[in-house]
Design a protein that fits this description.
The structure holds 2 protein chains of 2 kinds. By secondary structure, chain A is of the alpha/beta class. Chain A contains 9 helices and 10 strands. Helix content of chain A is 36%, strand content 25%. Chain A is globular. Classes of the chains: A alpha/beta, B alpha/beta.
Chain lengths: 251, 310
């Protein structure tokens, strides 16, 4: 990432906080993500990643702090945020009992795209993924790797400024996992911002910058090379273990 | 006598084959890994071994008992941890453990020694409902419940999936402790790096065994000259390496790209460095590296996928 032009951040958090009763799930996190950046959002189970991500997607109201996503305020404009982001997770992506084309049409409709635009985008998308022959195949009968690639492309259908990817490659075979990252790189090269969580530490290496959450706080944030240098270790795995071992509410 | 043995086991769900002609043998006391992505057939194999599912053809034994004829005997000697959390969400941690002990006509006290190390980590949450535990803790409780009747064979279906790196490491440490007590462990995982923790592994893809061997032997069978290539920017590096005329395959591997060449070449490092420099890459470092299990697996996948029947 070149930072010489200092573009306006796509995601900006200032002391963003979420409390559930007496429990502080997200504790005053602050960071900014630039357009076209691949931002790795790491943390142990229970560190507060999901809560933070839900706030940034406009799905959960924060307790205090400030945050904006794609130019919209997380407190006051959550519906506008939802229209300008894409979201994909391992757990929920596409409707298994709709065909490939039906899923694309459905999501295009949800995001308010015109019928003609959906048609054009469907053709382009299927061609890019080499799925032309599967247009009328039920998504449920596609191999997992294809589903995930399709789900990612559908999340990009409405040209969102930022796409949130929640463990997108879980359970996928190692070749498909890497093909998935090719799609991520291509999207980033087109200027889309990618906000991604993963348990694969090799994938942390592919991010431009990585943040690591521990007990609701961001304990480290830098390029993978910078983090390894900071902690005097050779791999992101070691960086992660070093930070997450000290967690109090690891669960 | 092997602890687990499968002969030509096949199973289809309707027209979809899940497991095809799988034959495997796991020695008593071995820590054996089933390594493969979703859809490889791992869960189907576990369900057949746990006597929860009948194979369409083939035969299998666990601790010397036939999975069809002697299914009752097997249920007393295996501990099975399904991939999906299957304890009672509305019972507490302590109640779940007592329940599973009672089902097997034993008590928590009787076999406490076996689960002590794991259960002590759960002790602060003893009265919490299982459904309110998070990932790593649920997994530890499930392991305790699978162990409380002192099984001879542990069947663990993806115990570390979706679990963070710290909990994964702790879990594998627990498994080596259990192995030291003589328990046979068959464990599946989609994480290739965890394969190295097993004594032997079977690499699985779409219901078939690609290869069975020790991790060291699997790495040694990788057939191509392999290099780790580093440069300032990964994505253009991958694109240029794929276009490199002598390249056989190229995959990202953390901070480096792994490039295999179709032919051994003594001048490969210098040529590659010159090629990448001419493409405008900075900070280029090329080092010969030994293959990892993931390299081997991907090479087998490629061979497998390019076969006409695949």
């Amino acid at each position: 990432m070149s930072t010489t032009t200092a573009p306006e951040p796509v995601i900006r958090c200032e002391k963003l906080t979420k409390r559930f009763g007496a429990f502080t799930a997200v504790d005053a996190i602050s960071f900014a993500v630039a357009p076209g950046e691949i931002f790795g959002f790491l943390g142990a189970n229970g560190a507060g990643k999901t809560t933070a991500m839900r706030m940034l997607c406009g799905l959960l109201g924060p307790t205090e702090g400030r945050a904006s996503v794609a130019g919209f305020d997380v407190f006051t404009q959550p519906e506008r945020i939802k229209q300008h982001i894409g979201y994909m997770s391992q757990k929920f992506s596409l409707y298994e009992d709709l065909t490939v084309a039906e899923n694309i049409r459905f999501y295009g409709g949800v995001y308010g795209l015109a019928t003609a635009a959906i048609r054009g985008k469907t053709d382009a998308l299927l061609q890019r993924l080499g799925l032309q022959g599967e247009r009328n195949t039920l998504v449920g009968s596609l191999p997992l790797g294809w589903k995930q690639k399709l789900a990612f492309s559908v999340a990009l259908l409405h040209d969102p400024a930022v796409v949130f990817l929640d463990e997108p490659t879980g359970g996928v075979d190692p070749i498909t996992r890497r093909q998935f990252w090719d799609l991520i790189y291509e999207a980033a090269a087109r200027g889309v911002t990618l906000f991604i969580t993963t348990h694969y530490m090799d994938e942390a290496e592919y991010c431009d910058r990585v943040s690591i959450m521990v007990d609701g706080k961001i304990e480290a944030l830098d390029t993978p090379a910078g983090l390894k240098q900071q902690f005097g270790v050779d791999t992101m795995d070691e960086v992660f273990l070093h930070l997450a071992r000290g967690a109090k509410n690891a669960e | 006598m092997p602890a687990v043995e499968l002969h030509s086991i096949s199973k289809a769900y309707g027209a979809t084959p899940a497991v095809r002609e799988v034959s495997l043998s796991v020695e008593a006391g071995e820590l054996f890994g089933l390594i493969g992505p979703d859809g490889a057939g791992k869960t189907t194999l576990f369900r057949i071994l746990a006597t929860l599912l009948l194979a369409d053809s083939g035969s299998a034994t666990v601790a010397g008992h036939d999975v069809v004829r002697d299914f009752r005997a097997i249920r007393n000697v295996v501990g099975y941890m399904p991939g999906r959390f299957s304890l009672y969400q509305d019972l507490t941690v302590q109640e779940n453990l007592e329940f599973f002990a009672a089902v097997f006509r034993t008590t928590v006290q009787e076999n406490y020694e076996l689960v002590r190390d794991i259960y002590e980590q759960l002790a602060p949450f003893r009265n919490r409902r299982a459904g309110a535990l998070s990932g790593g803790m649920k997994q530890k409780l499930a392991l305790c419940c699978a162990l409380i009747h002192k099984p001879e064979v542990l069947l663990l279906d993806e115990p570390t999936t979706g679990v963070d790196a710290v909990s994964r490491q702790e879990f594998w440490h627990m498994l080596s402790t259990l192995k030291a007590r003589g328990i046979t462990i068959v464990v599946s995982t989609p994480y290739m790096d965890e394969a190295a923790r097993c004594e032997r592994v079977a690499l699985l893809q779409t219901g078939q065994v690609l290869r069975v061997d020790t991790p060291a032997a699997l790495r040694a069978t990788y057939p191509w000259p392999l290099y780790a290539v580093r440069a300032a920017r990964m994505h253009p590096l991958l694109q240029d390496l794929r276009a490199y005329p002598a390249a056989h395959s190229c995959y990202a591997f953390g901070e480096a790209a792994h490039l295999s060449l179709a032919q051994p070449d003594a001048a490969a490092e210098a040529q590659l460095t010159a090629y990448l420099s001419s493409k405008g890459h900075r900070d280029v470092v090329v080092t010969p590296v030994p293959a990892t299990i993931e390299d081997t697996f991907m090479d087998l996948l490629q061979t497998h996928q390019s076969a006409p029947t695949a």
